[in-house]
Specification:
This protein is mainly alpha-helical and 250 residues long. It has helices at 7-13, 37-45, 69-78, 109-113, 125-232, 237-249, and strands at residues 26-28, 34-36, 51-52, 59-60, 98-100, 105-107, 122-124. Residues 16-57 form the RING-type domain.
Length: 250
């Protein structure tokens, strides 16, 4: 069991040094290192000088490297799962097996060796995928925490709303009852004041009616006295003088 190698570890050991994918049609150079046929052809096409092995930097002849039959049989026997339609680089037509950390782009092995990403830090796609999956899981966890907080806040707001509505209903009932009682007291006080005013008015009117009746009687007596005096003024001189003091005093 200690000597067994897991499938992911074995897959890492069977990766092409250029594309970092499992070998496809592996070719062996004179130095003993193997590469995918497509990667080696692309590397030779983009080099103006002699080809040097990217691993050991030994100068090699890339015109007709022999296929690594044993390696190909091992890979075929293991039947590694692969992408049926791998994404390829539009410049080198190699699989996009690397990720440029600086430019945040997917690149192929030749882009990292010869292209504009040559001096940039690159990471295998599988590693970047695992890292981003972990970051995504952390983001999802953060979102769930925020969602939980928002849910709690919504529940709290809902409870506050219900409490405020209930308290408002209670206060409305209390206010209506208090004002009903106030209206009742006001109506009673209004009736008492009106009754007092009417009684006072009746007393004043009765007194004035009595005074008016007395004044009318006095007026009639004065009118009668005036008629008596006017008749007395027509008396003869001797009768006028003789009766004057008696009539005037009366």
């Amino acid at each position: 069991m200690a000597g067994q190698v897991s499938v992911p570890e074995l897959e890492d050991r069977l990766q092409c040094p250029i594309c970092l994918e499992v070998f496809k049609e592996p070719l062996m150079l004179q130095c003993g290192h193997s590469y995918c046929k497509g990667c080696l052809v692309s590397l030779s096409r983009h080099l103006d000088s002699e080809l040097r092995c990217p691993v050991c930097r030994q100068e090699v002849d890339s015109s007709s490297p022999p296929p690594n039959v044993s390696l190909a049989r091992v890979i075929e026997a293991l039947q590694f799962p692969g992408d049926p339609e791998p994404k390829v680089c539009e410049h080198h037509r190699n699989p996009l097996s690397l990720f440029c950390e600086r430019d945040q782009e997917l690149i192929c092995g030749l882009c990292g060796l010869l292209g504009s990403h040559r001096h940039h830090r690159v990471t295998p796609v599988s590693t970047v995928y695992s890292r981003m999956k972990e970051e995504l899981a952390a983001l999802i966890s953060d979102l769930k925490q925020e969602q939980k907080k928002v849910d709690e806040h919504i529940a709290k707001l809902g409870n506050n709303r219900t409490r405020i509505v209930n308290e408002s209903d209670i206060f409305s009932w209390v206010i209506r009852r208090e004002f009903q009682e106030l209206h009742h007291l006001v109506d009673e006080e209004k009736a008492r004041c009106l009754e007092g005013l009417e009684g006072h008015t009746r007393g004043l009117v009765a007194s004035l009616d009595m005074q008016l009746e007395q004044a009318q009687g006095t007026l009639e007596r004065l009118v009668q006295a005036e008629r008596v005096l006017e008749q007395f003024s027509n008396e003869s001189h001797h009768e006028f003088i003789r009766k004057y003091h008696s009539v005037a005093s009366r």
